[in-house]
Amino acid sequence: MPKIVSYNVNGIKARLPRLIEYLDAEQPDIVCLQELKSSDDTFPEKEIRDAGYGAIWHGQKGFNGVAVLARGTNPVERQRGLDGDPDDTHSRYLEAEVEGLIVASIYLPNGNPVPGPKFDYKLAWFERLAERAEHVLAEEKPVVLAGDYNVIPNDDDVFSVKAMASDALMQPQSRAAYRALVSQGWTDSLRTRFPAGGVWTFWDYQAGAWQRDAGFRIDHLLLSPQAADRFVDAGVDKAYRGKEKASDHAPTWVRLK
Questions:
Q1: What are the residues whose beta carbons fall under 8 Å from the beta carbon of 81, sequence distance 6 or more?
Q2: Among residues 22, 58, 93, 148, which one is catalytic?
Q3: What is the mean pLDDT of residues 34-50?
Q4: Within 10 A of 244 (CB to CB), how many other CB atoms are there?
Q5: Shortest CA distance to 188 belongs to which of 151, 230, 158, 221?
Q6: Which of 8, 36, 214, 231 could join 159 in a cystine, given CB atoms 3.0 to 4.6 angstroms apart?
Q7: Domain assignments of the chain as residue spans, ordered by start
């Protein structure tokens, strides 16, 4: 049963020991990484290959950056970047095929502060993602759209609605864009597994958020109907957030038949 993981590493060079440790211990089949903060040239290809994974990546110096890793095989690239904005220089989307399964690693813009150009960019990017998602859905293949969407979809996906009320992650427009995407026919795998919410994938470094379990859910794995038919389980490998020099996100995963 393949395990597909979404993992915002918050700087792949800083987190490389944690990432390799995770790959060795958990042996996931496919890993979609976000926020590499690494140029294409400085991506640690050798270390990842030594851990038994083929990789493709779409880097950017200092911020953003996405990758797809596959255990024992090489992901076949389908698309890097989204159509619809020729001026967009951000490395935020990478789509690949791994042994008949299509996966996309997605790093949606944060959008803060609200209102402002960064929030406008977030919503415009969301529209471009939805267009691509619709196109991929029409292929009627098993697809997993995995990534850091920077959206808290529901009130029960956050430790405190009040604390996050003014944040771009929880604005009505952000939530509406997420809902519109899902309603194309995608299944939110973590929501399916935990319909009552209360499951976090991110804990800020500030204000003792991890110690207080003051987190929220922004890492999502959306399944096409053909992938949803094979759904077995979903979860968060929460313990990895508590390790030394950990990312502020925990690896989030889905298992398919």
A1: 58, 88, 91, 92, 93
A2: 148
A3: 98
A4: 6
A5: 221
A6: 214
A7: 3-256
